[in-house]
Amino acid sequence: MKKLIIIISTFFSLNLTAQKWINDSNCDSQSYEILNEAINHLANLEHLTAFGMAKAAKMSDSGCECAKLVLAAISTTNADLGSRKDKLDLVNIQLLSPEEKAWYELLLETTRGEESTWDNTYSSAIKKFPKSPIINWVGVGGGNWDGYMDFSKKFPKNASAAYNMIAYGYAYGEYGDSPDFEAAHDAISKSRALHDGPNSLDSKAEIAAMEGDFQKAFNSQFKARDYAYFASPYDFNLRKYWRTVNKENLSNYLKQAQKDLQKAITDGNLEEYKKYVSDDIDLVTGDSNLGDFYVYTDDDVTRDRNFTWDSFDLNDIEVHFIPDMTMAILTFYAKGSYTFIETKENVKYSTRASSVWVVADDGSWKSVHSNWAPSEGGIGIPKQ
């Protein structure tokens, strides 16, 4: 671990553009460099990296109490489950510089709920430390578009996170009468020039998606996930963009899957049926005999019926995806005929139906709901 810390500190000693978020710190010089990088990752919403950097700063200098503030800042303020208050309680405030203590007091205010006196505490902090990047940054607040712009001008070396938010401001049309995607991407470029991290690539992808360029979004998102792919926070959107790029192919797949699923059911083919349903999610269905909704099980696939299918065809299938591409609603019509086993009576079958398919954890699509009803003037299946 000592070798790792030496490598980290050597990297920062060569990085002449390293951003300083705390002007006055009680951490030693080596830990101070690591600490500032931790805060930079914190500001850029790269919390897992901020966690590792803060841990490294503390290991390099056991007296670097400000590193504990980073660990508290990336924790939640939830009164029942959050750990921010507990982590702040572990801070030895005697080892904090006055500037660090001001940040500590602001973090503490976020844990006090309705009893918080944040505004007064912040007013006092900014008067004492008007040139502190960290004190200025925590005062900007979410959605403060003018605040992000002001911060970028006041602290240009610390403005990576500010430029990232400015990019969203341009994309949302907050800096004009309409979205300006060219300005948004320019702001992302400025952000990346100051900080080479995955979050700006995630933002670049999201803004490309707003433009409707999902291939560009996928390419940027892939780079964001590639920083550290295992359990990556950027994986969800990467999959969403991939599905959007391949929307037509997915639609065709689901249309065929619906047909194959229904054929497996009509044929009583359990092995084929199980390809399209999940072991973890029930398939809830309502039959065209208008009986009660029920959970369709393996036994329903193989059970004996009082009729046999002569023909069954699905047609006019349409696929509708929800925005995050994790669920699809299919609508379709079915026609065919069946014959009662005892009476040999033949019945013309005509229904309309819908089904719901969702993405499973392994990326496959599974059917979780279907609803069938007789078409106008049509007949569904008989009650069993």
Write the layout of secondary structure elements.
Elements (H helix, E strand, L loop, with lengths): L1 H13 L14 H15 L3 H14 L5 H8 L10 H6 L8 H12 L8 H11 L4 H6 L6 H10 L5 H13 L8 H14 L3 H14 L2 H13 L8 H11 L1 H21 L2 H4 L9 E4 L7 E3 L1 H5 L4 E15 L5 E14 L5 E14 L5 E10 L10
Parallel strand pairs: 1-6
Antiparallel strand pairs: 1-2, 3-4, 4-5, 5-6
Structure description:
- The chain is of the alpha+beta class and 384 residues long.
- Among the domains are: 1-139; 249-374, Nuclear Transport Factor 2, Chain: A, CATH 3.10.450.50.
- Helix content is 49%, strand content 16%.
- The chain has 17 helices and six strands.
- It has helices at residues 2-14, 29-43, 47-60, 66-73, 84-89, 98-109, 118-128, 133-138, 145-154, 160-172, 181-194, 198-211, 214-226, 235-245, 247-267, 270-273, 298-302; strands at 283-286, 294-296, 307-321, 327-340, 346-359, 365-374.
- A six-stranded mixed beta sheet has the order 2-1-6-5-4-3.
- Strand 1 (283-286) and strand 2 form a beta hairpin.
- Helix 4 packs parallel to helix 6 (98-109).
- The longest helix has 21 residues, at 247-267.
- The radius of gyration is 29 Å and the shape is elongated.
- Mean pLDDT is 94; it is low at 1-17.
Q: Care to count the β-strands?
A: 6
Query: Could you name the ranges where pLDDT drops below 50 across 5 or more consecutive residues?
Result: 1-17
Largest sheet strand order: 2-1-6-5-4-3
Q: Distance between termini?
A: 69 Å
Order of helices and strands: HHHHHHHHHHHHHHHHEEHEEEE
Q: Give the % helix.
A: 40-55%
Computed structural class:
alpha+beta
Largest sheet: 6 strands, mixed
Shape: elongated
The total count of helices amounts to: 17
Beta content = 15-25%
Q: What average pLDDT do the residues reach?
A: 94
Radius of gyration: 29 Å
